[in-house]
């Protein structure tokens, strides 16, 4: 039986990263995001078709996330060298181009497994997106089949609902009233 993650401390991680411009390698851990919100998302592989549409859309909205005191971190099972090559490759031949947040390497597949998105027989992650609060509690998760991309607008809406501090009914939007608890 699958273990529930929402409402619990997010599984800890430490991974190698490449910066969004592809110039710098580093390391990142969940602790690095303490005190900020984190949109943490998995995608299957570099140099694929749906993945760059999601990554560039999240990058284009990065200013909106920053306004909400939120960082963004993408991760796949590819190496940081593959991430760097994908960022550096021209977009007209399937490259990603510069993005506004780092990409992490889960080459051991441990983090994907810990977050419940690893497709073990394929060795890749499903499209999992997680929102983690400033104290490290996992507040939201959505997992899609790899054929279907996610919605930046819905991610922003849910993030704002979580940050509103109240009960948010269906189709709640920023500016709407919260329900009485």
Description:
By secondary structure, the chain is an alpha+beta fold. Helices cover 24% and strands 24% of the residues. It is built from 5 helices and 9 strands, in the order βββααβαβαββββα. It has helices spanning 51-60, 62-67, 80-88, 110-114, 152-164; strands at residues 14-18, 25-29, 37-42, 70-76, 103-105, 118-119, 124-125, 127-132, 138-144. The strands form 2 sheets. It has a 7-stranded mixed sheet. Strands 6-7 form a two-stranded antiparallel ribbon. Strand 6 and strand 7 form a beta hairpin. The radius of gyration is 16 Å and the shape is globular. The two termini are 32 Å apart. The mean pLDDT is 94. Belongs to the peroxiredoxin family. AhpC/Prx1 subfamily. It holds the Pfam family AhpC-TSA. Keywords: Antioxidant, Disulfide bond, Oxidoreductase, Peroxidase, Redox-active center. Residues 4-164 form the Thioredoxin domain. This is Thioredoxin-like protein YkuU.
